[in-house]
């Protein structure tokens, strides 16, 4: 992205009010009623009944604080606070409201409500701002339903097309295309509508950290300098299904043991990498026939590799594929790999990072620089605009778990930094 051409049109001091922890807590608790697994974490897959009910709640909330609400055909919601010169490129904030199965009620949701609260603060303070400000809800950031992450922001950035909607399906067989139609959208217009046709000046997303770096540092806010990007593979191992008692250890062509060795190879390569940010994960595995006394003949599993540098992932992948070939030959099995995505990491815009730091200093909120291991919608938005992120701590570093918890007071502190930084960005030209 090109560097900012910075000119502050009007000197704007810090907002004359602080974020309401009471608002944030109320909204987070109320949204959690739209949940498939009450009492056992939060489950709200994208485009389900619960997700659509949650969208209606957020739309109504956006309208109630004076925002102009629109929606696109990926289901992305936009709550706009008009500026003095709508011809200028807008400033965005926001996150997602879908969850993983039995997940937490803060992941994504905190960023949506922080954005709404930030725009409410700006509107009610009467602070002048030239650019439109928009708090957005991006559809399907989690990949748990259709095997593709960041559906809404991926569409906005031009990384998702009509043919992809038909190719991605949930385990039941329903495609993403069909799910969009069932939810009342018009996916046939996808390629005409996306990527986003309107330039965006800047985007700043608040999110829970999903790690314990801030908690260990005893700091309430982190300013993100880079976002690690995922590479996702589906690996299949084809061996020979045979009797557990009737097949000697030397005669076996065990698909599972080959898959286990490939998994350990991934772990070893990630540990040996020079990058401190690289990770390798096998999170999903299916055995066939999955019987106690049968040697598996077929195994399918997922591979997730992440780093803040694409070259680190490429180096690991080269060794990984070479190691798979050796395992394949030695164990006399056949292995196939399908790359689902190979996303490039995003380095957060230096100006946004510095501006957020300055705001934190003005508000007397201690912060630290931090790198995001998890991906977020901002990763996709980095294709079309300058991005930044603000992190607030996760207790014990736990996320994607019903035990996920973040202090409302920390979310409010992050929202104060968010609101004031958005205001300053909205007055640049």
Topology (elements, then pairings):
Blueprint: H1 21-31, H2 49-64, E1 68-71, E2 77-81, E3 91-95, H3 109-125, E4 133-137, H4 151-156, H5 162-167, H6 176-182, H7 190-193, E5 202-208, H8 213-217, E6 221-227, E7 229-238, E8 242-243, H9 255-272, E9 279-281, E10 285-288, E11 294-295, E12 298-307, H10 310-331, E13 334-342, E14 346-347, H11 350-362, E15 367-372, H12 377-381, E16 386-392, H13 408-426
Parallel strand pairs: 3-4, 3-5, 5-16, 6-15
Antiparallel strand pairs: 1-2, 2-4, 6-14, 6-16, 7-12, 7-13, 8-11, 9-12, 10-12
Helix pairs in contact: 1-3, 1-13, 3-13, 9-10, 11-13
Question: Keywords for this structure?
Answer:
single chain, about 425 residues, alpha+beta, Aminopeptidase, Alpha-Beta Plaits, 2 domains, nine-stranded mixed beta sheet, five-stranded antiparallel beta sheet, 13 helices, 16 strands, about 35% helix, about 20% strand, globular, disordered N terminus
The helicity comes to: 25-40%
Q: Tell me what the CATH architecture of the largest domain is.
A: 3-Layer(aba) Sandwich
Tell me the β content.
15-25%
Overall outline:
globular
Largest sheet: 9 strands, mixed
- The class by helix and strand makeup works out as alpha+beta
Indicate the CATH topology of the largest domain. Aminopeptidase
Question: How many distinct helices?
Answer: 13
**What is the first-to-last residue Cα distance?**
16 Å
- CATH C-level class of the largest domain is Alpha Beta
What number of structural domains do the residues give? 2
Oligomer: single chain
